[in-house]
Fold these 2 entries.
Entry 1:
Amino acid sequence: MHTAHGETALATMNFQPLLDEINDEIRPLLGQRGTVASYIPALARVPAAQFGIALRTCQGEEAQAGDAATPFSIQSVSKLFTLTLAMRHMGDTLWERIGREPSGNPFNSLVQLESEHGQPRNPFINAGAIAVADRLLSRGDAKAELLALMESLCGEPVAFDAEVAASEAATGYRNYALANFMKSFGKLDNDVQAVLDMYFHQCALRMSCVQLARAAGFLCRDGAHPRRGEAAITTERHARRINALMLTCGTYDAAGDVAFSIGLPCKSGVGGGIVAVVPDRLTLCVWSPALDATGNSLLGMKALELFVAKTGLSIF
Ligand code: GLN
């Protein structure tokens, strides 16, 4: 796919000055536009004027700038990891309950779910991730399984933020509506409360850009563990499919725009984090809490655009 020339250029690319440069360009824009996710009270209190960027290459080199070591609520970025576990357990039978088409609708929309009889369009909108959480619960202790996966990927302990999970449990009316609606169509096997408890906890994982860039490393390495010598996280086929879903569905109703302006598989969350994958090269995580109208980090997207413009890296 890439020319020998491209490989030489990238192999010699020193990413640290590049991330410093992006950080310098983004910092003056902090706090100017966008709003933090105010519908989750615990997230509404997060100071907007923060920005971090971190990357990890397939060879294990790392670079970071800005607030890259500050932990934040990963929110929907967690859907990458629960999907990975569900695909590992269930293979193609997972798709009997969940579609693979972009929604073209906001991540928490109810409309499509009604016309499609409780079958979520894809695993990254809330309804789809709730259905994935249901599948994982049917297999056992889903929270413990997710924590174990994240700790293995990061090489250090990772925790749920109990305050964020409780805040969403107290106010997540839309997610209750989505889950009850799916339950009424017979699309959830487990108790709605138990499924949402898992979903709210996965969204409440607290991680930094550095940790997320590491954790997503298997997605640029055809499923291989980010650290050499560890068992593969998923198969090459599954890793490709997760990347495909990230490109088409990972940023919700902005997915077309993101493919157009950035051209990388991305997964965003309303905590302001975005993970992007350059297949066979590197994973990147950006974070800035202020969001645009589609629920994606405004300056995170801007930083990804700068990264792609400066490196020429894109899947196209
Ligand atoms: N926990 C959030 C919610 O359910 C996740 C949404 C997101 O990050 N896009 O609304």
Entry 2:
Amino acid sequence: MSDNDPRSILHRTQRIVVKVGSSILTQNGELREPMFGEIARQVATLRRDGREVVLVSSGAIAIGSRELGWDHPGHSIPEKQAAAAVGQIGLIELYRRRFADYDITIGQVLVTRSGLEDRERFLNARHTLTQLIGLGAVPIVNENDTVATEEIRFGDNDNLSATVVNLVAADLLVIFTDVEGLYIHQPEAGQPSPPLFDVVDEITPEVERAAQGAVSTFGRGGMKTKLEAATAATASGASTVLCNGLERDALLRVVGGEPLGTLFTPAEGNRVLASRKHWLAFTRKTRGTLQLDLGATQAITRDGRSLLPAGIVSVDGSFQVGDPVACTDPNGREVARGLVAYESEAVGRIAGRATRDIGQVLGYSNGDEIIHRDDLVTLETHDSTPASDQRLDTDH
Ligand code: GLU
């Protein structure tokens, strides 16, 4: 493998998040028990090599449904939640036993999106995970399905795995699934598999089209959420590999730089989003949308400026001071996200007005900026992120 090979950096990765999908731990509702041992064996090998590994594992709903004697993953949300409550025990117990074969302690970490949207809890989760890693334990993360309703959950462990990449500042995300990688178009029944994307440097419309497709029975995500995860993980500076976890030694081969699956190359230099901005862009759910005119779009995306009321054309949604909102350009394309300094009703009243009018129109002022540049992250081009931003910025 030459140094020009984009996979040569995988060999140097140090902290690895492995996302294990339900589709590789179960098949037609039956457990693939040997997979747990396979994962433990490969993780043990990587650790002997001095690397750190965090698992994000699905499977609770699949295992719980089987224990409950169902042939489906639960029809209603409470059914799924009940299945998760039953199945999480078996899931973690299987990991515990197989990792114990290698004298490795595991720790169970259950999170929800709404929990991690809170900055303090996000940082608490970071401290816990970092502590576990420091103690030599392997954290095994899953969504706490029992408390999470549709509104407040990640919904799929693909997006959760990208948030874990940010939480622990991992440099590699490996997404294990039961297909070979990202096919250049959807496989058709009875036809040979189409070729894979080998290396993806940029999420182009072509890559996005290739990811449209079916969702597996027990897992919640499809290729679409895997692509979202790759987008978010690479934005935080981690390489991402999507591959078939059922392949022998898949994890070891990925880290060894073998051309397995599809590699999404990491953002580099000042395109890497600092941790807090990454959290803002990818973990927090937006509560509304501000449509901007061209001038404001350019000011925030190209010049790294704050958003002032004059450039806002319209306001959608209902949000409070400090909530995250999306900013769209005149074509309706989302170009940035940020935390607003004014509630939605107030933004509606001062949209399009000069900054000096704020106090007179509202009778108060929270400052000139609707979104301060420090609370703003641009999505398409990250050039406006100041180079001085650290990857893992300080705890604030
Ligand atoms: N948290 C769910 C489970 O453990 C799975 C979510 C997903 O498949 O992405 O069953």
